[in-house]
What we know:
There is one protein chain. This protein has 550 residues and is an alpha/beta fold. It folds into 3 domains: 16-120, no CATH class; 137-337, Rossmann fold (3-Layer(aba) Sandwich), CATH 3.40.50; 353-532, P-loop containing nucleotide triphosphate hydrolases (Rossmann fold, 3-Layer(aba) Sandwich), CATH 3.40.50.300. 43% of the residues lie in helices and 15% in strands. The chain is built from 24 helices and 14 strands. The protein has helices at residues 16-21, 25-29, 34-43, 52-60, 63-68, 70-78, 82-91, 100-106, 114-120, 148-162, 178-192, 205-222, 252-261, 263-272, 287-298, 319-328, 344-350, 372-380, 386-393, 396-410, 423-435, 449-460, 496-504, 534-539; strands at residues 137-140, 167-171, 197-202, 227-232, 246-251, 273-279, 304-309, 333-335, 356-364, 415-419, 439-444, 467-472, 484-489, 517-525. The protein has an 8-stranded mixed beta sheet, sandwiched between helices. Strands 9-14-13-10-12-11 form a 6-stranded parallel beta sheet, sandwiched between helices. Mean pLDDT is 83; it is low at 126-131, 313-317, 531-535 and 537-544.
Amino acid sequence: MVSPPQVDLEAPGLAFRSLLALQKPKRVRKFVPDDMVTILDGLEPGFSSSEQIISLAQKLLDPAEILANAEQRRYAISLLPQRKARELCEKLAVDPGRDPFKAALSVADDIERHAAIFSFFGVVDEPRAPVTQLPGQDAAVADYGLFAHQRKAAARTRRMLSAPPHRGVLHMPTGAGKTRTGMHLVATHLSHHEPTLVIWLAHNVELLDQAADEFEKAWSRLGNRDVQLFRFWGNKKVQIDEARDGFFVAGLSKMVALDKRAPVDILRLADRASLIVIDEAHQSIAPTYRSVLDALATKRPQTQLLGLTATPGRTWSDVAKDEALAEFFAEQKIMLEVDGHDDPVAYLMSEGYLARPHFRSLNVSSGLDLSDQDRQRLASEIDVSDELLRQLGQSTQRNLSIVAACEELIRRHQRVIVFAPSVANAKVLAAIMLARGFQALTVTGDMPGALRERTIRQFKSAASQPMILFNFGVLTTGFDAPKTSAAIIARPTKSLVLYSQMVGRATRGSKAGGNKEAEIVTVVDTDLPGFGDVSDAFANWEDIWHEPSN
């Protein structure tokens, strides 16, 4: 016989997890999403009607999130022991009468009483540990070497930028040291021009954090003077008048906002900048960003503009858009070359700079019933729609197949990353793996910044326990966890750029602190397109770019 749960009903209030411990499995099940219950029961029949569902709910459910939902808040109140229902009424300053449940529920939706309800269930409004706030600017004080193929690429890039029209792209595959090579170019430029600004632009927080951290590391070894490091994204502020000599890292969206609010500040930066670098260069011709780049790079004819990319195109098959990108950079591109080797990717893999990826497909039947109109729209749109991705994430059969693949990989790899088709699906898959006894983490774009940073640090840590990270909407760029040796691409895409970026999260080579080999599992859904080989991604756009003569 199972011993009754040890819950102290004499103590004030009743913690939500203690409330769950007092319930039968069928009552707790109502808090757990139906699609998750379906999958868990499919994997282990009877799971949701056993004590295991209570244990999972206690680990998985966020009491604050549950109580913030009106229906679930009311349901939680209805589960209280009667004496606790009366106690809640006292806390809410309402007469319990003959039916304390009815009395408590009558004010459960009163927002002014929510703090008392949350407190009763053990959810206190304690301040979260604040995100580490780096200042808007600080001093980056003056070894940091390059491999031979990186030195050659850097030298050729310098020659390209030194001659009119002073713009072009450096194209290196993911994991080949693009950021480090770029920082050597930045440090050399800053050392030869004084005073001057180098402006580094990127579109997401991970890339911006990476650039600022990498510059501090590079300049302390390569710099010839003390300069300023300016961080200009999110809630970070910079005094534009003080930005005269140093490295200015800026978010594209924040620069667009500055251009609209104070265009003269953009022009001031353009007057002081002699090198503009845009990471993930395929973003540069987006209409919202191009005006900022034009303002920064064309104010002075000698200003240099460098794009960095592992995928020098915006699409797989839209030649017009790819040509527009090439034209913006004067059709000049330095591609990584290795003497005596026609295929740089193959060389980097053979020498351990990149992990050798082993691709395999996971064919699934998602049960989607696509009409002719759906198929036409899928063929004409630039990528798979959010609605279709959401539907894929709700497919029980698809999820069962992905969970099986996850369990197989996590038994052979220390770090596995999964690209899910939606936020909800990432959370469901992580919860299922957690219930199955694995260390599962979730990172999504809607997470608070502090929680996302802590989760990423945990995944990147040296902990020996295998971990699997489910994510949606983030971590395709600017995310460097070298020990990641397997990836499941469960988010279908028509974008070769996006696919290549996802593959690249698992292909850091042993010489760069990563692995000799990597496993890439691509979930293939009926009627949806996909890609399969990173070498094809590296060479796909060569017909619209030209190597500058050196």
